[in-house]
Amino acid sequence: MRLVFACFYGILFASLIGTTQTSADPDLGPQVTEIRIWEHPSYTRLVLELTAEVKPRILLISNPYRIVLDLPRTEFLVSMAQQEQVGVVKSFRFGLFKPEVSRLVIDLARPAVVARNFILMPSDQKPYRLVLDFRPVSNEEFTVAAVKTRVTEPSTDKGIENSPLHHEENVNEKFTIVVDAGHGGVDPGAIGRNGFYEKTVALAAAKELKKALEKFGSYRVVLTRDTDIYLPLKQRVAIARQVAGDLFVSIHADSIKNQDIRGGHVYTLSEKASDKAAQALAEKENQSDVIAGFDLEEHPADVSSILVSLAQRETNNSSAKAANSIVDEWKTRGLTLLRKPHRQAGFAVLKAPDIPSVLVELGFLSNKEEAYMLSNASTRLPLIEALAQSLHNYIQTAETPQK
Ligand SMILES: [Zn+2]
Asked: What is the Rg, in whole angstroms, of the alpha carbon atoms belonging to the chain?
């Protein structure tokens, strides 16, 4: 990956060129081959170089200030790593938001609107270029413009109907384990020291865990996602309930400032965090919808009831047992664990009131050795096998393993 910052005529210029793929393939639909950002005195210009013409749907979202571009399914051949602020653009992310929608989320350093947006046709060996100019505005102006983008654009944003489980039967005799690969699509999760994304590690590990669990022959294993796509946190919980899950396991890989810290660890739900690090992690994980540009104002949260919290208490006991089973098995096998490997915090994805739920952090992508270990199927295998065995142990000893 190449990152260039240079001054041209007093204009800051940033260029990002990806490493994931080297050449454009016309069969894959539109591809973004480069993203460039300039700072002008009165606006910030962002240019997407493309292999085809696209028309974006533009959304403005506040808390925090973001500009969201929805495009038809588009391949991004650039990297999300190593970003620096240019003008009003603090950072950006991209990826699949829904099966046929790719999303580019632009985090703003201050409120700004899209003053101009146009496409330039290929010329002088230059490809299609989608040009967007962001003009800084006041908070009030941003709010008004944000409401307008919601009103003028048709909202077909229901999300749930696109889940891979749409045709799945609800009724099933087998004990159902829902394996949830954290993050995905426009939400990369942590970015590892080797440039690897948490979403990629989580998806690979989730698929491997499904396979390992199926070897026991007695479980039905359902993945919340089996491709690189974003899923709202609430939808992950909804899927688990929709398939009548008996156990929910969310797979992640952590990242932290101190690059020496390493080891697997497991979280269960608690409104009161067990420690500051757990609290910070839950806050970070709960940002997934914000990171993906999911407009929470369009999808108000459910009002939780006392009944839900009662059911939750019972479920929490089972969740804790599952978490302890994982920690025990990892210890038995001599795998690296974080100090205090079972912690609690208020993770949104663990809030199914009737399904025991755990969030597994396989290790730290911020640690060099673990980033490497987690990025390879062969070195991941001992962890996956231990995890499968520990869940099997938990299910065998659980008081009411059958529905
Ligand atoms: Zn995560």
From this structure: 22
Neighbours of 41 (CB within 10 A): 7
Judge whether 255 and 365 are in contact, CB under 8 Å.
yes
Burial of 393 (0-12, 13-18, 19+ CB in 10 A): middle
Q: How far is the CA of 351 from the centre of ligand 1 (A)?
A: 16
Question: In Å, how far are 12, 62, 173, 340 from 107, measured between CA atoms?
Answer: 18, 10, 46, 35
Say how many Å lie between the CA of residue 395 and the centre of ligand 1: 25
Residues 6 or more apart whose CB falls under 8 angstroms from that of 245 comprise 176, 177, 178, 222, 352, 355
Note the pLDDT tens digit of each residue in 245-259: 999 999 999 999 999
285-310 confidence digits (pLDDT tens): 888 888 888 765 555 444 344 555 66
Domain ranges of the chain: 2-152, 160-397
State pTM to two decimals. 0.73
Cα 323 to middle of ligand 1, angstroms: 17
| 166 backbone dihedrals φ, ψ, rounded to 5° | -55, -35
CA 198 to ligand 1 center in whole angstroms: 7
Confidence of residue 213 (pLDDT cuts 50, 70, 90): very high
CA of 124 to the centre of ligand 1 (A): 44
**Cα-to-centroid distance, 253 and ligand 1 (Å):** 6
Q: Which residues pair with 39 in a beta bridge?
A: 12, 44
Dig out the tokens for 326 from the structure. Answer: 């994982």
In 3D space, the residue among 309, 183, 298, 190 whose CA is nearest the CA of residue 251 turns out to be 183
CA of 13 to the centre of ligand 1 (A): 32
> How many other C-beta atoms can be found within 10 angstroms of the C-beta atom of residue 399?
7
| β pairing state of 31-39 and 112-120 | unpaired
Q: 2-152: which CATH topology? A: Immunoglobulin-like (2.60.40)
Residue 364 pairs in a beta bridge with 254
CA of 388 to the centre of ligand 1 (A): 20
Domain 160-397 has CATH 3.40.630.40: yes
Where would I find the H helices in 243-354?
276-285, 288-291, 306-332
